[in-house]
Amino acid sequence: MPPNISLVKEAHKTISKILKSGDIAIDATCGNGYDTLFLAQQVGETGKVYGFDIQRRALEITEQKLREQRLLLQVQLIHVGHEKIASYIPVNDHQNISAIMFNLGYLPGSDKSVITKTNTTLAALKTACQLLKKSGIITMVAYPGHPGGLQELEALQNQINALDKSLFQYEVLEIDKTDLKKPKLLVISKKLS
Ligand code: SAH
């Protein structure tokens, strides 16, 4: 892939093929709100987006963006770690989530010590796989160049490789295969049958 293609844009492109109006989606790391905004546009007013972040600041930025674009109606922002998502999504919506996005690492322009951590990211991915509807998709942008990021990525890849291959399909998109520190986009799809 040419180096100037953003993996976040690639994630949006991949999800836009699957996520439709009226669907339910999760942004597991709201950050600056770009993914939440994208998901809210995709699902429309008849759909629902649950957005999670542990930093209040990130949720405030996200809320502001959604308000400006008049997309707040279909979004619920939740100030809690993504490792707890199952408790915050109504049981009726479990196994009915069409897309779940993660953008790992730290919030750009903010405190770099508040960063996603391997154990909680792994727990969140496990739950995400359970909540995902058949034919649904999980995208994770991982940053092995951040402190702790390579360990997080390797642990994720081990967990993903151990998934039941009759249920899940896995693909990795990377900017530069020769540079281990470049971000990667992990795409996990739940098969239809
Ligand atoms: N690294 C990306 C941006 C990532 S933002 C880039 O460079 O563009 C990651 C967000 O995840 C941050 O806002 C951070 O607060 C949030 N986060 C960290 N741990 C979390 C957790 N356990 N649950 C939910 N959000 C978390």
Structural summary, described in words:
With 193 residues, the chain is α/β, with parallel strands linked by helices. It is 33% helix and 23% strand. The chain has 6 helices and 7 strands, in the order αβαβαβαβαβαββ. A 7-stranded mixed sheet has the order 3-2-1-4-5-7-6, with helices on both faces. The radius of gyration is 15 Å and the shape is globular. It starts with 6 loop residues before the first helix and ends with a strand. The relative contact order is 0.16. The model has no long low-confidence stretch (mean pLDDT 94). The structure holds S-adenosyl-L-homocysteine. S-adenosyl-L-homocysteine (SAH) binds next to loops. The site of S-adenosyl-L-homocysteine has 19 residues, from loops.
Question: Could you write a compact summary of the structure shown?
Answer:
This protein has 193 residues and is α/β, with parallel strands linked by helices.
Tally the beta strands. 7
Oligomer: single chain
Q: The biggest beta sheet, please?
A: 7 strands, mixed
Q: What is the C-alpha radius of gyration, as a whole number of Å?
A: 15 Å
Q: What proportion of the residues is helical, as a percent range?
A: 25-40%
List the strand order in the largest sheet: 3-2-1-4-5-7-6
Outline, from the CA principal axes? globular
Mean pLDDT comes to: 94
- Secondary structural class: alpha/beta
> H/E element string?
HEHEHEHEHEHEE
By DSSP (H or I, 4+ residues per run), the number of helices equals 6
User: Distance N terminus to C terminus?
Assistant: 31 Å
Tell me the fraction of residues in β-strands, as a range: 15-25%
User: Which stretches of 5+ consecutive residues score pLDDT under 50?
Assistant: none
